[in-house]
Amino acid sequence: MQIVRPVNVIDIPAIERLLVENGVNVTSLPQDRDRLAEIVSLSTKSFNLEQEAVEFPFFMFVLEDLETGSVIGVCGLEASAGSGYPFFNYRLEDLIHASHHLEVKNQIPVLHLSHELTGSTVLKSFAMKPEHKHTDGFALLVRARLMFYCAFQSLFSDRLCTEIQGVLNEQGESEFWNSIGQKFFDIDFATADYYAGVKSKTFIAELMPQHPIYLPLLSPEAQETINREHPQTAMNCQLFFAEGFTKTRFVDIFDGGPVLMAQKQSLKTFKDYHAKQIKVSHQVGGLKYLISNQSLRDFRCVIGNLVDGVGDTVRINPEIADALQLEAGSVAGYSML
């Protein structure tokens, strides 16, 4: 059985191996032990909000194989985008340039530096061993954060977003960055991405041009990548679209990748979410559900069969109850897989 649970400090070596061995490049998961330890520490404090005050919580989860004890995936949930600082993106718009004398009218696409999404809840820091991406574990890792979101709604915004990695060339470079960011920083994409991971995106955005950027002035290669996702993120996008997320006019300031957004009320997980007392039974049929406990500090989420009958109780088997640290009469949250 696979389970999503809060990260802890002993998971750091496993997360490092996951990132290195699988060539994972996620800005918010830097391959820097000190910075990674800081992120894990913040997450631990956030899960312990009942005892510790955290102004801007960030929750990191791992996907663990209970049989082997191995960590096969990691993901994060940031309560408030920017964590007290502006959360920068580019906003795509069209400007009309017209001349009545020449009878010319042109619609020109432009990019505006924006921090409109500041304060949104952000799904981020996703990484998973490739061999598990075509299993139920993939949906579990992506959607367990939303189960946590449903259980503790008061901690989060009604607006959610996620930044999808943009298109890179054969050399692993971003043509979008080469056409804009590199002109102002004189550093390559990989270096800028590393600095953003160990510091923040804020220091980059503060030095970016504040005036609109006219897309026709960018290289053709850069224009082609705007609001397009990296091929390796296709499964992520499909799942997010099925969940209720949509593409927006916002793109990432580094690689021009799309920013997906959803309102709480439109989320499939939220609309299907219920919480009821459990009965533990060896005789369980039913359908597959995402099932979680209701503990902030010791949150657990699995995929398993559940029988939702008439009334205020549901039936699950002992193995699932044990994995979720639940007993008869405890309350479980659940949503259709």
UniProtKB/TrEMBL annotation:
Keywords: Acyltransferase, Arginine metabolism, Transferase. Its EC number is 2.3.1.109. InterPro entries: Acyl_CoA_acyltransferase (IPR016181), Arg_succinylTrfase_AstA/AruG (IPR007041). One of its GO terms (molecular function) is arginine N-succinyltransferase activity. GO terms for biological process: L-arginine catabolic process. Pfam families: AstA. NCBIfam families: arg_catab_AOST (TIGR03243). This is Arginine/ornithine N-succinyltransferase beta subunit. It comes from Gynuella sunshinyii YC6258. The lineage of its organism: Bacteria, Pseudomonadati, Pseudomonadota, Gammaproteobacteria, Oceanospirillales.
